[in-house]
Amino acid sequence: MPYLDTYSGNWSAKEARHLLKRTSFGVSQALIEQSVSLGLSETIHKLFEEKPLPNLPLKYEFDDEINDPDVNYGETWVNAQPYPKVDTNQDRNRILRSRNRSLYAWSFLQMQDAGISIREKLTLFWHNHFVAENTNAHREFYYINTIRKNALGNFKELTKQITIDPNMLIYLSGNQNSDKAPNENYSRELLELFTIGKGLSVGNGDYTNYTEDDVITIAKVLTGWRARWIRHEDPLNAYFTNNRHTKGNKTLSHRFNNAVISENGENEYKDLIDVIFQQDECSRFIIRKLYKWFVNSEISSDIETNIIEPLAKIVRDNNYEIAPALKVLLASDHFFENTFCMIKSPVDLMLSATKSLLFSAPKTSIKAEYEFAYLLYIACTDLEQSILHHPDVAGWKAYYQKPLYYKTWVNTYTLPKRLEFCKVIVTGGDLLIDKKKYKIPPLIPVLLVASSIKNAEDPNILITELANLLFNYEISAEQKDSLKEILIPGLPDFEWTVEYSDFLANPTDQGLRTSVENKLRNLIGTMVQMSEFQIM
User: Fold this and answer.
1) What is the pLDDT of residue 212?
2) Residue 359 belongs to some domain of the structure
3) Do residues 174 and 249 both lie within one domain?
4) Which of 14, 128, 439, 503 can pair with 395 through a Cys bridge, CB separation 3.0 to 4.6 Å?
């Protein structure tokens, strides 16, 4: 079995679609054609290109809706007061909630507009890896900005930055960690969830990769770091208080070869992380998580030996730079063998329902653009994937919890919602989200979608090409016949051929236009509800 040999098969739209779906959010036909033209090697290169950071999130609600003394409509709020100076707490909370909405909408716009780039998929990966919750949009922005800046970079360096991120210090009690009262919350998660993993229990307080004594010792190493409350001056930067730091050298257990962390004040946490990352298991730990994110949830002993171990060595050889190993994985025969084994996350699902069908947040105004992106955010939240708000510190269960893994996204509550959301985006209708009704117009430009298909007047070609676009999966002849019944129920093929050809010849005929458009909406609205659309 070739495992990590570079893929040498035919490079076509099918392979390009698989790669782009796994490494970005939603794939348009134009992106697929660009990737086919580039070829595998150049597509991989483009995916990992360094790009400028995006423009800052904007206030998108009008001034008469949200009276923010520091920010006008169309301006960024990022550099404004994190704790607005207004008369009442009610007014302050209204402003802060508005900034939260802007940040969440802006995050979806970054995923929607990324093009051929893996950065946003990796940003979400690291966000799910280093879970840190906060309700203040400024702290949330600086946390996610740190992740985005380092998304394609060095795992060890990102761990250092996140360790003293104010969001993380508050979320996992680092702010309360002092020499008089060491708090083990972050030290435990640093080992178990963020760097090396717990491993099996081999004795009382002793695991394969660390001991309970290590948790206690590491808590002492990390004492002294603090974050100011949001209403105080400079609340967005952590600071070190030496008189709260546990002095002296700290010795780790046999699991870390009895390494000594020498007294080093505000730099001691960096020395600690360097020691943790000397353990080879850190590289295996992160590769397993990346494998589940990009390839498959099941890691057999065969995969462990022939995929995880060699990729982990690449990570170690590159001092924990992640990109070199990921490039090998994503260009491998193994990656292109693992198709249709992943249920789309809600974010993947919603953006594939829009981008694949040539719809994106409207650019007619900042308000319209952000409002639609925010609708995607609350829809995904309703489907149990709320960005910046995880169910717990371990992240979304789909990426770690046996035996369901990706199947976690689908349950008796979410499955009907997933199907309904996809259909309404195509056909229009009412969406009930968190007990609030949203009236959605038909969003997908179905006539434009059909016009991109050569010989779309043949219903068999139309359905086959739509299936290729939406599923990248060869559906059966029976399924095609059933879909044809949706398009032209009980009628021979030539009825569609005549009607669509007449429309192409007379595009201003409103009756023809409406008839063709309705047929296409019914067809595509049905296709995005099929199980094949739920999988990538």
Assistant:
1) 97
2) no
3) yes
4) 128
Token pair 């953006």: residue: 351
Pairing mode, strands 429-433 and 436-440: antiparallel
Residues ≥6 apart with Cβ < 8 Å to 129: 193, 194, 289, 395
331 and 6 Cβ atoms separated by less than 8 Å = yes
Alpha helix segments (H runs only) across 429-476: 446-451, 459-471
Tokens of 65: 């809706």
* CA 409 and chain centroid, separation: 14
382 in a domain, yes or no? Answer: no
| CA nearest neighbour of 71 among 99, 47, 93, 38 | 99
Q: Which of 294, 312, 341 is the last residue of a domain?
A: 341
Overall number of domains in the chain:
3
Whether residue 187 is found in the same domain as residue 250:
yes
Return d(Cα 132, Cα 140) in angstroms, integer: 9
Which residue bears the tokens 């040999």? 5
Mean pLDDT per 10-residue segment, the chain (536 residues): 87 96 93 97 98 97 93 97 93 96 98 96 98 92 97 98 96 95 97 96 94 98 94 91 97 98 98 98 98 97 98 98 98 96 97 92 94 96 96 97 96 96 94 87 94 95 94 90 96 96 96 97 97 95
Cis peptide before 492 (omega within 30 of 0): no
- b/e sequence 203-222, b meaning 16+ C-beta within 10 Å: eeebbebbbeebbebbbbbb
Contacts for 423 with CB less than 8 Å, ≥ 6 apart = 429, 525, 526, 528, 529
Same domain, 11 and 131: yes
Q: How far apart are CA 275 and CA 252, in angstroms?
A: 10
Query: Locate tokens 């996992």: which residue?
Result: 172
**Residue ending a domain, choose from 341, 366, 384:** 341
Which amino acid is it at 127? Answer: H
Task: Write the CA distances from 60 to 56, 96, 111, 370, integer angstroms.
Answer: 12, 13, 18, 6
What are the structure tokens assigned to 402, written together?
């046996």
Residues 25 and 83 in one domain: yes
Strands 436-440 and 260-261: unpaired
Q: Do residues 200 and 125 share a domain?
A: no
426: DSSP letter? H
Residues 325 and 465 in one domain: no
Burial classification of residue 476, based on how many CB atoms lie within 10 Å of its CB (0-12 exposed, 13-18 middle, 19 or more buried): exposed
Q: Is residue 199 part of a domain?
A: yes
Enumerate the β-bridge partners of residue 438. 431
Range of the domain at 97: 1-153+280-341
CA-to-CA distance for 298 and 292, rounded, in angstroms?
Answer: 7
